[in-house]
Amino acid sequence: MFKLVRFELKKIYKTRTFLFMVLSFFALILMYYTINYFQANQLYNEQILTNQNTIHNLEERIDDIKLLLELPDIVPAEKRSLNDALQLLESTIEQSKERLEGLRKKDWDLVISSYIEEQKNIVQEQSSFGFESKDSSLLNRSLFTLESNLEKNKWLKEKGITPIFPLDYSITVYDQFDTNEEQQALSMAESFSADALFFQYKLTDLVFTSLGVLFFVLLFGDIVTKERLNNSGPINLLRTQPIKKNHILISKFIAIIIMSVLIIITVSLISVVIGTLFSRFGDGNYPILKYGQNETFSFLSLDLFLIQSFILFLFVILFVFSIHLFISTAVKQTVISVGVTMMIIFLGAALSSENYLSAITPYMPFSYLSVNEVITNERAVLIGNFSINFLTGIIVLSITTGLIWMIHYLVSKSYVVKKEIT
């Protein structure tokens, strides 16, 4: 079996198509890092500019109030009101100046503390009075979002973690936006960082999805079909040897998994090296929001999140290629086998997103294709079933993969028996 696997690995990495696709994939990753690097710097500069504008606007309002206070005919009640407003504005401008100084000196403790104080007041008013703020950034955002963002900033301060901007804006599944507002909110809430570990997080959000599954299926999609186009193909040569057909397929399956893992690890190592060289390694205990039942929440450390996402995606790959190899044994053309595989995957994913199937969704392997949503329990909230989680995903994908191989074995055995009879 070991020799067969090694033989399959050689055939994979020596093909031009494989080399082209892998090198293109690496190039895209480098481009994606470049985008994140410049976006992170731009976001940091925007934070400074925003605070400068805020201070300027506050100073103008303070000057206007002082002019009003100097009017000779001002009534005592109005004067008291203006003095209260002046005191509030002076306090706010002092806070903004401290934040600006912290941003310029990269005194993150000072910066985070200023945001915490601001968010405490907002959360307190929202929870006590349910006020409607004139601040457009608060519109349609739930109390859950405001509280979780506040607690995230407290986590950053307590553990001395370098913040990733924005600190004052986030969105969650409990927020309600129309189409235009949602696009704006997503843009405002998106975080960028050139740090190696956080870039890994951004990569998982891009690769450990149906898009990543599609890439790997296209990369290895012809591993069986390309060898069955004629009677002189490599797979037919192997069948003339004292080797069982199932062993050939298993060796191909193992080779695919090994190459997939190597590609993911190589991409991770490259991005870590680049991220560390151009920025910093990052904080393994950076908080990742995890939804709980009854609108509760907790935080996963970034390093634990990355480990879980890698493991779950590996099981997704095992499941998907079990399906694909099963289809490839019955179909002679790569385009058809890949097309059928992707159709099954996308139809299964669509079906597992239907709310009327929420009771059985945790037991559908297609529910776990979007790895990040599973680990953070975002998918559990959207479906309304918290049985959809990391552990259940591992169990369901393992059992389903085993069943596919069992069916394949039985079908193959039945075919051999029928052939011997005829």
Strand content: under 5%
Q: For the report, how would you describe the main beta sheet?
A: 2 strands, antiparallel
- Helix fraction bin: over 70%
Average pLDDT value? 86
> SSE order, as H and E?
HHHHHHHHHHEEHHHHH
Q: Tally the beta strands.
A: 2
Q: State the low-pLDDT regions, or none.
A: 131-136
The helix/strand class is: mainly alpha
What is the distance, rounded to the nearest whole angstrom, between the alpha carbons of the first and last residues?
30 Å
Gross morphology: elongated
Description:
With 422 residues, the protein is mainly alpha-helical. 70% of the residues lie in helices and 2% in strands. The chain has 15 helices and 2 strands. Strands 1-2 form a two-stranded antiparallel ribbon. Helix 3 (76-105) packs across helix 4 and helix 7 runs parallel beside helix 11 (302-328).
